[in-house]
Amino acid sequence: MTSIRMVSIAFAIACVGASAHAAQDTELYEAAKRAGETEVTWYQSHIRTEASEKIGRAFTAKYPGIKVNVFNSTAAVAFQRLTQDLKAGSVQADVFGTTDISHMPTLKAQGSLEKFVPETIAGMVPAVKALNDPEGFYTVTYASLTALTYNTDKVKKENAPKRWTDLTDKKWEGQVTIGSPNYSGTLGGWTVMIKRLYGMDFFQKLADSKPLVGRSIDDALIHLNSGESSIAAGDVASTSRSIARGNPLGISYPEDGALLLIGPTALVKGAKHPNAGKLLINYLLTPDAAKVIVGEFEQSVIIDAPPPSSGVPLKDIKTITNPLDEILKESPGIKAKWRDLFGS
How far apart are CA 164 and CA 233, in angstroms? Predict the structure, then answer.
């Protein structure tokens, strides 16, 4: 009886959540049409351009008359562009999504974000939902995994790196490739995790291994696919897509923990298309958007989403997340150290 009652309660809550979402959805769409909002501009560093444009087309199919303009870049570039727009008093972005969560408290403190809580948060994975801004200024709409990746033509599976410390092993000297935390939000999160695990000395040891350093975390894919490098710290989704295209790549989930990074999204203060912007944020947490996301090998943050096409369920992977206060405290010093060591 108890289990039946619990299922009934859960079903009732889900129905209420779905009903509330439908009501908010309709209200926002009608408001957007009344205001003549025929487009919405989305600055984001969460997913690659093709995937974000697929979401844009799916959004427009559901909400005819509203086109999605996507500006896709690294987290640092998207943040810089938004900051320049704000300083110039000419806001172009309606919605801002970043892989560097430290951007959000900064924008929030400046009064550059509009409070908005999408009704679709009712369907979020509880552990991820708990990471939303408690005051409602930003919502987590994205999650990614960073693991060890390698070129399978150069490295056999049994010889693939097993721990993050393998990146500093002398046997891999000159064969490592990696992005920069000064450009990539994902690498920024990775460096915070690494400092917690192994201290600042890790970065000097990494520099001693003479890595090929790029900007975006996905620069590692280029260097691995070309054979310039053998191993890397890589994005699991991007690597999985490359493997699906037939490229000689492998993924090794580190024994000391893969980075689980979250990406928040927010409505920009002074947005030209505020109703359409809210509608887009709402949409990013729907099953429709999740289908596109997991089809691109990405992780969805909603309960009803199927696992990504990479084939390894998140529950089977040892993961590490970074608390926001640690990111805010540690990132500036780590980025400065990185510039000193690697020049980027």
Answer: 8
- CA 284/CA 188 separation, integer angstroms: 24
Amino acid identity at 288: D
How far, in Å, CA of 104 to CA of 109, rounded?
Answer: 8
Where do runs of H (alpha helix) occur along the chain? 2-34, 49-62, 75-88, 103-109, 126-129, 185-198, 201-208, 219-226, 236-244, 274-283, 287-295, 324-342
Of 324, 271, 278, 276, which Cα lies nearest the Cα of 121?
278
Cα distances (angstroms) measured from residue 248 to each of 70, 147, 251: 30, 16, 11
Sign of CA dihedral 206, 212, 218, 222: negative
Q: What is the pLDDT of residue 128?
A: 86
pLDDT digits (tens, 9 = 90+) for 200-245: 999 999 999 999 999 999 999 999 999 999 999 999 999 999 999 9
DSSP state of 306: P
Residue 150 to residue 165: CA distance in whole angstroms:
15
Q: Are 188 and 75 in contact (CB under 8 A)?
A: yes
Within 10 angstroms of residue 297's Cβ, the number of other Cβ atoms is 22
